[in-house]
Specification:
Elements: H1 2-10, H2 14-27, H3 32-44, H4 48-61, H5 67-78, H6 82-96, H7 100-112, H8 116-129, H9 134-146, H10 150-163, H11 168-180, H12 184-195, H13 202-210, H14 220-236, H15 241-253, H16 257-270, H17 275-287, H18 291-304, H19 309-321, H20 325-336, H21 343-359, H22 363-376, H23 381-394, H24 398-411, H25 416-428, H26 432-447, H27 451-463, H28 467-480, H29 487-493
């Protein structure tokens, strides 16, 4: 019967399980395992009172087995009988002494019933059991603060100060107290005091800083505070990797890229196995346009994480920017084969392969990978713009190029590079007046210092017979340092070369 009850329980046939469990328990009422199975089956059938009776009987038979009282208290909790559960916890406490988990459970139950003083009394038991442990006082401070009793919170903080006035937990408690009272400046001063203490674990500090993340981008004050606190975190835990990378994260959010790079490098010097830190470092190298460092560090990261596709992407982009196009193609192809269930990343690989193969003059491959990127996301403005621009430079498929470029401008209006691309396609189609209109738009949208746009504008003016004006724009393009190899010859001869 016992075995049948167990089988029916497993099959969730509770009424059958209950019949056989009762039968087994009645035939041998002193068998502990039969009684436990019956109690468990009662609970599954929602008969929690019957389960409690069995657990209490088992405890009388086995007074050293306090787990039966825990089982009974759980059954009471399932019925919402919180007082009965607490009485059993008190009984257990008499047997085993003060226990942190049980005290906190009773505290939660009292708070659920709105009995704040009773909850506090439980924490006082914990304090009395470990009078030197300030963590217990912190729990009591938090209870008073959450329940809007600032005087009692301050009184408890004073008790903490009497034990260990330099303990950073006191500063944290005061920081929360000042915050609840609306004194943000005083709260921040206490936070700084806590963060300046090496006694406060870095994990606690990082948890506090995490709460700043949703606020820093919209609040300059919160950004300043997070930078100050994360700097203290870094300084007080110089031998730990995470504090350095957390400080770097906040510097990065604040666009202090050079400083962030230094901290990410410091973090990785301590722990090279932090993939996220490597990724952030490589992103920052890209922001700083330090592609030589980016390529070198991406290679180092790949030595540690050879199966991470994103590192191949960074490596390929850096190699391409450094004009190492063959290397870039190899890295991008290798990485693209590692991508799993990430269409966005795969599109990035294909888009960059399109760029690289164009530089290598492998135009068929270039078009193939651009098309693959478009197949994933036909509205990616960068793919639409780049492919159409390279087609215009090759003077191929100009109608297709015009269609894609027009789409990129619809999706992202007033982008000077996209406007320039469409203008240049019109130029290649010998629609010079229309080209000039779009190049005007490109300059007005912020391209007045862009050498490529200025040179294109000069070329278009020349085609329209405005030689002097064309010469002026070529000269302006020369000053930017961003121009074609033919520009010097155009300026010297005051003649268009294509």
């Amino acid at each position: 019967m016992f075995e049948l009850a167990a089988i029916y329980n497993q099959k969730s046939k509770i009424s059958d399980a209950l019949f056989f469990a009762k039968s087994a328990a009645e035939l041998d009422p002193k068998n502990e395992w039969y009684q436990l199975l019956l109690a468990n089956t009662y609970e599954k059938s929602g008969k929690f009172n019957d389960a409690v009776v069995i657990y209490e009987q088992l405890y009388k038979l086995h007074p050293d087995r306090v787990e039966y009282l825990f089982n009974a208290s759980d059954a009471y909790l399932m019925q919402g009988k919180l007082n009965e559960a607490i009485k059993l916890y008190d009984k257990i406490e008499e047997k085993i002494g003060v226990n942190r988990e049980m005290i906190q459970q009773k505290q939660r139950l009292y708070l659920k019933m709105g009995k704040v003083n009773e909850a506090a009394a439980e924490l006082e038991k914990l304090i009395q059991s470990e009078p030197g442990n300030l963590d217990n006082y912190s729990l009591l401070v938090e209870l008073w603060q959450v329940n809007n009793q600032p005087e009692k919170a301050r009184a408890t903080i004073k008790r903490m100060e009497a034990i260990d006035p330099d303990n950073p937990g006191i500063a944290l408690a005061l920081a929360e107290q000042f915050r609840s009272e609306g004194d943000r400046a005083a709260s921040f001063e206490q936070l700084k005091k806590a963060f300046a203490s090496p006694q406060l674990a870095s994990e606690v500090k990082i948890r506090i800083l995490t709460s700043y993340l949703p606020l820093v981008e919209t609040s300059p004050e919160m950004m300043d505070q997070s930078l100050a606190l994360s700097k203290l975190l870094s300084q007080t835990h110089p031998g730990e990797a995470n504090p350095q990378s957390v400080y770097a994260d906040f510097l990065n959010i604040n666009k202090q890229y050079s400083e962030a790079r230094t901290l990410y490098r410091a973090s990785l010097a301590i722990d090279k196995k932090n993939l996220q830190a490597w990724q952030q470092l490589l992103i920052i190298e890209s922001e700083l346009r330090d592609y030589a460092s980016m390529e070198q560090e991406a290679e180092e990261a790949l030595g540690l994480f050879p199966d991470q596709s994103v590192l191949y992407l960074f490596s390929g982009i850096a190699a391409s920017q450094n004009k190492n196009y063959e290397t870039a193609a190899k890295k991008l192809l290798s990485g693209s084969k590692l991508v799993v269930d990430n269409d966005q990343q795969l599109m990035e690989f294909y888009s960059n392969l399109g760029d690289v193969y164009d530089k290598l003059k492998k135009f068929e491959d270039s078009d193939k990978y651009y098309q693959k990127a478009i197949n994933i996301d036909g509205n990616n403005v960068y793919v639409l713009n780049n492919w159409s621009y390279y087609l215009s430079l090759r003077n191929e498929q100009l109608e297709k190029a015009a269609e894609m470029s027009k789409r990129s401008n619809e999706l992202s209006p007033n982008n000077p590079s996209f406007l320039d691309t469409y203008g240049w396609i019109l130029y290649m189609q010998a629609k010079y007046s229309d080209a000039l209109i779009w190049l005007d738009k490109a300059i007005a949208a912020g391209g007045a210092e862009n050498g490529t746009i200025l040179e294109h504008y000069g070329d278009t003016l020349f085609k329209l017979g405005k030689i002097t004006e064309a010469f002026d724009y070529w000269t302006r393009a020369k000053k930017t340092g961003d121009h074609t190899e033919l520009l010097d010859k155009k300026i010297n001869d005051k003649k268009l070369y294509e």
